[in-house]
Amino acid sequence: MAKVPVQFTLNGSEKAEFVESGTTLLHALRDKIGDTSPKGGCHQGTCGACSVIVDGELRLSCLTLAETCSDADIRTTAGLAEGGVLQPLQRAFLDAFATQCGFCTPGMIMAAKVLLDRTPNPSREDVVEALSGNICRCTGYEPIIQAVLTAARANSQNAA
Amino acid sequence: MSLALQTFSSVKDANAALQAAGTRYLGGGTLVVRAANEGDVSVSSLVRVTDPGLSRIAVSGGKVRLGAAVTMAAIARHPELAALAPAARAVGGPAIRNMATVGGNLFAPAPYGDFAVALLALGATVVTEDSEMPIEAFFAARDGSRAIVTGANVALPGTDCFRFLKVSRVKPKGVSVLSIAALLQRAPDGTVTSTRIAMGCMADRPIRALATEKALLGCKLTPREIAPALAVAGEGIAPITDPIASAWYRAEVLPVYLGRLLSN
Amino acid sequence: MELRKDYFADVRKDGLHEIGQPRPRLDSPGHVTGKTAYFADRNFPGMLHLKMVRSPHHHARIRSIDTSEAEKHPGVVRVLTARDVPHNVYTILILIQVGPEDETVLADGKVRWKGEAVVAVLAETERAAQEAAAKVKVDYEVLPAVFDMEGALKPGAPLVNEYHGQNYYHYDSGECRKVRFGDVEAGFARADHILEQSYQSSPIEHAPTETTGCVVTPEGNDRFTCYTNTQAMFFTLDNASIILQMPGSKLHFVGGTVGGGFGGKVDVIVEPIAILSAKLTGRPVSFIYSREEEMQISSPRAAEKVVIKDGVMKDGRIVARKVTGYTDAGAYSRHSPYGAQKGAAHYPGPYTIPNVWIDTYCVYTNRTPSSAMRGFGVTIGDFALEVQMDKLARLIGMDPLEFRFINAYRDGDMKAHRQRTEGAALIECMQEASRAANWPVAEKYMAMSSYRKGA
Ligand SMILES: Cc1cc2nc3c(=O)[nH]c(=O)nc-3n(C[C@H](O)[C@H](O)[C@H](O)COP(=O)(O)OP(=O)(O)OC[C@H]3O[C@@H](n4cnc5c(N)ncnc54)[C@H](O)[C@@H]3O)c2cc1C
Ligand code: FES
Ligand code: FES
């Protein structure tokens, strides 16, 4: 089976690997590079658990081929906490009980992060829309929405 | 055999590679990669083109040229494409919209193809390397077509002329029960002078509501005057059945939603 | 949140320091940093992927299976059929003596539901396993199938499961679980009104975000480690030990965080075949359901039918209740005989009724085997009972909440199962509900208590 090189930055550090052609970014991250924070809940694009940020945009890593991400800047939930300090978004998920089994959480946090990066003071509707591609079967969505709104407030207080 | 990706810088070379059996074009991948993940082993090779021209949006003289690789997200945020934004925003969730392309949407089987419904109502033309055809002709020949679509040309509708509605069970994101797009030209007194109405999920691909279009001519958009047009909405439809809704259900609710779209 | 500590203050120490206080979950830090390890986060060099060839028919005899083309497919390491499984016919509840063994790990001679596992393909990549699975040829003779419980119980219906010999589970009490209390016919005879209604539900899938699966590694010395998201660790270990005919000491099961279960991960389905695969190939094996498998193959909550006949007096007392419950097990028992039995233990609901008759059946059909899900055997019953309560109240022109106060069980009441009620709190719950919902009831009901004089 033909192997192809893939090279990108993951959470700020350079990664290079050989993968089989046609390998999804999800498999490359989890099985080759060892970042298991994106989860495979469906491999169909429907659950959002595999969401990662590629060049600033939210993408489903299960439907993205690794080869198409050469030289990209990829961000995952595993790279969010800086020096072990939780980001306000992570803190808010923890405090608001927005995570139960946790399987959807890394994807939810990625979807929420791109929202807050672009829209620091989102409305509730903005949050609902931003999370609309992510399924949680445990917590109910309300604590998750509240967590994102709380994180937005915390961010703007920090900035002030 | 495994799945392999071939990358080309020109459409011409990619078109040549697509002649091989088991080969498919890769747009945003939301449908083809999904099928491969789910065990569809009929595709063994994906072909992609890196030509940046395919991702270009060019607006001029009331017309837009949408490159086939333009994403729903790019349309939704483009300042000059406000008329198309509701249809682009109706596709999937944010991550899907960052990936889903115009080209892929033209090929997406029902219940998908919401954006293509809008393109049909707007009378778009579909462009390949060596042809440009009306979108109806494209849909009619879609099954046998292997040529890469390079883009779509669309005349942008004036304000208040274009309406789009997607009905889904899950909000704000969900697969279509149906979608409807209507282009309506009206005389100053409000009577309809010309119209194109397209529907999604009423066949395996978007179709026109020809009988309804005809019956609307000369009508004002009041519940009473549009009633005869709604009564013939079911002519020529063959709705799909899937886990979202049965063909029967889709046919039943079509006139209701069509009525809401036209009369508000 | 508001805590009402005044109820039962005399029977309870007021030491509830944790209740009502927000406490962080111990596993949240791992969740929000993406560090929590789920079973599929383990990846081993040389790991094989298992894909199941499944029955496209609801009910069919298998004439022959030809795996030769699949075995030759590039990347394929091994193809397994029923012959390879040491103890192929099993049932999970055999551990608590609820037999007979009635389900095959891999189909042997017959398939009884659409999606049943027939052949397991092991290959170097998922793609190779998928391609090879498509090359397995199974010759089926399609048999008549039955999809509804009434049809399955009719004489002459196709026999779903030969290990039972009839289309219902045979309890030690006979064709169903039975409860007999008082004289239900006499109760109907003196009732002012009789209402008989039938309620039905469809199967419900748990749809956890993480699909069912496991990863198995051979550890040498014929020992295996199985990383799994089962909700029933020791049940799975013991059943795997039976199916593989291997002492449990050879099997090391590692659980951990489950990505949502809701009862859907208590069946023993993926682990035994994955361990067997690791044993026969000497390689790590991963068997993970696709989303489609999770939705179509994993056991749902059973479809149920509940027929309730009540005799009620004009003053609101229910004097007789007869319930016939049917649980659709699908093609195999799994947890359904227990679910149907739970139904018998749950009816007639939290009400004190002097004359009760209950029959609950566990029925076999050619549908996806059902199993546990949040309160199975009880949840659908409660839906039926409470809708029936509303209908009864309407029938006699009484407020539905007051009607429930009249019939609510209280301490000391004899239940249909001949146990005296203890620790009842229904009255108090309804009083609080009445306040919270702003649905006033007569003062005498607000003055009631679950304690009865002399109890
Ligand atoms: C979770 C989820 C939700 C979705 N929701 C919606 C929705 O709400 N509405 C909707 O309309 N769709 C929806 N879709 C379907 C799909 O995402 C869109 O239709 C999208 O526009 C398809 O585009 P793509 O670029 O991803 O297609 P791809 O998957 O790349 O391609 C799809 C097909 O079109 C062919 N193709 C693509 N581009 C070209 C081209 N330029 N020339 C020739 N052939 C081409 C491919 O070969 C393939 O056969 C959803 C999909 C998922 C996974
Ligand atoms: S695994 Fe990618 S969306 Fe579910
Ligand atoms: S916490 Fe379990 S799926 Fe969201």
Structure report:
The complex is a heterotrimer of chains A (160), B (264) and C (455). Chain A has 160 residues and is α+β, with helices and mostly antiparallel strands. Helices cover 36% and strands 17% of the residues of chain A. In chain A, strands 2-1-5-3-4 form a 5-stranded mixed beta sheet, sandwiched between helices. Chain B has 3 domains: 4-49, no CATH class; 52-155, Uridine Diphospho-n-acetylenolpyruvylglucosamine Reductase, domain 3, CATH 3.30.465.10; 162-262, Enolase-like, domain 1 (2-Layer Sandwich). In chain B, the strands form 3 sheets. Chain B has a 5-stranded antiparallel beta sheet. Chain B has a 4-stranded antiparallel beta sheet with strand order 9-10-11-12. In chain B, strands 1-3-2 form a 3-stranded parallel beta sheet. Chain B is globular. The N and C termini of chain B lie far apart (55 Å). The mean pLDDT of chain C is 96. Chain C has 2 domains: 48-143 and 207-296, Alpha-Beta Complex (Aldehyde Oxidoreductase, domain 3); 177-204 and 301-446, Aldehyde Oxidoreductase, domain 4. The complex binds flavin-adenine dinucleotide and FE2/S2 (inorganic) cluster (FES) (2 copies). Chain A: This is (2Fe-2S)-binding protein.
SSE map:
The complex is a heterotrimer of chains A (160), B (264) and C (455).
Chain A lengths: L2 E8 L2 E8 L4 H9 L17 E4 L2 E4 L12 E3 L12 H8 L9 H14 L5 H7 L10 H19 L1
Parallel strand pairs in A: 1-5
Antiparallel strand pairs in A: 1-2, 3-4, 3-5
Chain B lengths: L3 E5 L2 H7 L5 E3 L6 H6 L7 E5 L7 E4 L2 E5 L4 H6 L7 H5 L4 H6 L2 H6 L6 H8 L3 E4 L3 E3 H6 L8 E7 L6 E7 L7 E11 L5 E9 L6 E2 L1 H7 L6 H9 L15 H17 L1
Parallel strand pairs in B: 1-3, 2-3
Antiparallel strand pairs in B: 4-5, 5-8, 6-7, 6-8, 9-10, 10-11, 11-12
Chain C lengths: L27 H6 L14 E7 L5 E7 L1 H5 L3 E5 L8 E2 L12 E2 L5 E2 L5 E7 L2 H8 L3 E6 L6 H5 L23 E5 L2 H7 L2 E9 L11 E6 L5 E5 L4 H12 L6 E4 L15 H12 L3 E4 L2 H6 L7 E9 L5 E13 L5 H11 L9 E9 L14 H17 L4 H8 L18 H11 L6 H4 L9
Parallel strand pairs in C: 1-14, 12-13, 16-17
Antiparallel strand pairs in C: 1-7, 2-6, 2-8, 3-7, 4-5, 9-17, 10-15, 11-12, 11-14, 15-16
Helix pairs in contact in C: 6-7
The complex binds flavin-adenine dinucleotide and FE2/S2 (inorganic) cluster (2 copies).
